[in-house]
Amino acid sequence: MGFAQAKGDNKMKRNIETPKDKQNRHKAMEAVAMLDKIRHDFIQPPKNMDYFYDLYEKVYCKRESLHAKSVKVGTMCIQVPYEIIYALDAVPIRLCNGFYTDDEIGSDLAPSKACPLVKATVGQFSSNNFSDKPDFVISPTTCDQKSKSGAIIEDMGYLVYDMEFPRTKESEESREYWRRSVRKFTKELSKNLGKKLKKSKLKKTIQRIGYAQYLYHQLNDLRKEPNPPILGKDIFLVTNAFFFDKIDNWIEATQKLYEECKIRVKNEDKTHKNSPRIVYTGSPPIFPNLKIPLLIEQSDGIIVADETCSANRLFNDMVSIDEWFLYDMVDAVADRYLKGCTCPIFTKNNDRIRRVIDLVKEYKAEGVVYQAFAGCQVYEMEQRSVIEAMEKEGIPILYLESDYSPSHLGQLTTRIEAFIESLKNRRRRR
Ligand code: SF4
C-alpha cells in the first residue's frame, strides 16, 4: 500500500508544473509559432536556411545549450566588442531578448511603459531561463533603460560590469573616452577570466570576425538583385544567430547559404521579383519578435536591406589596423564600434539618416518602414527627423509603433498592407 502510494505521489510530482516550467513552455510555444510561420508560410526558402531553422529549434524550443563548456559573457547591447571576448577564450552571448513571456515577467520589475526589449531582458534574468546562462554580464551605458536594467540585474545577484559609452560620436574627446573604456573593459575582463590577452589571439579573432562580416556583406549584396534570392525574415534569423551561435558553425552555414543564393540569382529563381522593395529601420527585431518583418513579407513586400542593431549594423565597419601591436589592435577594435554605431542614443545622429538614404539608393528600395517599440524613447524621439529627411528625398516612409504583445496584429496588418499597396500604385504611375 505504502509502495503503491509512493508511486502515485511520484507520478503526481512528475505532472506538477512549476512556474519556471510554465514560463519555459510558453517560451517554447512562442518560438515554435514563429518558426512555423517563417518556415512554412513562404515559398521556397533557400535549402541552407535549414541550418538556422534547426538551430533556433534547438536553442529556443528544446532549450539545448551550445556552450556548456565555455565561459559565457553576456552582452546587453551591440556595443560590447566580441573580438576581445573571443580573444580571452570566452564566448559572447547577446542578451537582447524578443520573448513576450519574458517581457511580461519583466513588467513586474521595470515600469510597464518601459521598452519591451529591456523588460524581456530583465524578465529572463529574473526567471533564470537561459539555455546558455551568462557567467558575466557587460552592460554598456548606451540608452538609459539599458543602463538602469544592468543595475536591476546586478541586484538579482549577477555579476554585471558597466561599460561606459559616450553620448556624442564626432568629437576627439568621445573617441578617446571610448578607447579608454574599451581598454579598461579588456583589463577587467582579462582579470576576471584569469586570462592574459595575447597579440596572436586578438589578431586571429579580429580576422575571424572580419571574415564573418565579409561573408555577410557578400550575401547582402545579392539582395540588390532585381529578384533577391532570400527574404528579410530569413536574413534576420541569420544575423540574430550571430548573437549566440558558435562562430565557426555560423561562418560555415552562412558560406553555404551564400553559395546557394548565388546559384538562385543565376537561375533567376522566381518568388519575389515584383514585390515592393523595403528598407527596414528602427528598434531591433529580435527572435521571436519578428512580427513586423513577417507582416511586411506576408503583405507582398520584400525587405531588401535594414538599418538595425540586430542585423546590418552588427556587420558594419571592419576593424582597420595600421600596426598589429596589442594595444593598437585594442584601440582599433574600439574605433570600429564607435564609428559603426548609428544608434539614436547619440545627441545628433545624421549618420543613421545618411545610411538609410544610401541603403534605399543602393538596394533600389521603394519605401522605408520605421518601427519603434513603444517605450523605446530614443527611436521614438528620432522618428520625426528621419521622416522629414525621407520626405525631403521623396522616399515614402511608414512609421509604426509596436510592442511584443500578440494583439494589435490586425491594425498593424492593415497599415502595412495599405503602405505596400501605395508603393505598388506609385510604381504603376511611373
Ligand atoms: S538600440 Fe541602441 S542601445 Fe539598444 S541594443 Fe541597439 S545599439 Fe544598443
Report on this model:
The chain has 430 residues and is α/β, with parallel strands linked by helices. The chain has one domain. It has 16 helices and eight strands. It has helices at 2-15, 19-40, 50-61, 82-87, 100-106, 116-127, 144-155, 172-193, 199-221, 232-241, 247-266, 291-298, 326-339, 350-362, 377-393, 409-429; strands at 71-75, 90-94, 136-140, 160-163, 277-282, 302-307, 367-373, 397-402. The strands form two sheets. A four-stranded parallel β-sheet has the order 2-1-3-4, with helices on both faces. The protein has a four-stranded parallel β-sheet with strand order 6-5-7-8, with helices on both faces. Helix 7 (144-155) links the parallel strand 3 (136-140) and strand 4. Helix 2 runs antiparallel to helix 3, helix 6 runs parallel beside helix 7 (144-155) and helix 8 (172-193) crosses helix 13. It is globular, with a radius of gyration of 22 Å. Mean pLDDT is 93; it is low at 1-8. The site of iron/sulfur cluster has 10 residues, from loops. Iron/sulfur cluster binds next to loops.
Quick overview of this protein structure:
With 430 residues, the protein is an alpha/beta fold. Helices cover 54% and strands 10% of the residues.
Largest sheet: 4 strands, parallel
Helix fraction, binned, reads: 40-55%
Strand order of the largest sheet: 2-1-3-4
Q: Which consecutive residue ranges, at least 5 long each, have pLDDT under 50?
A: 1-8
> Approximately how much beta-strand content do the residues carry?
5-15%
Mean residue pLDDT: 93
Provide the structure class.
alpha/beta
The domain count comes to 1
Distance N to C terminus? 85 Å
What small molecules does this complex bind? iron/sulfur cluster
Radius of gyration: 22 Å
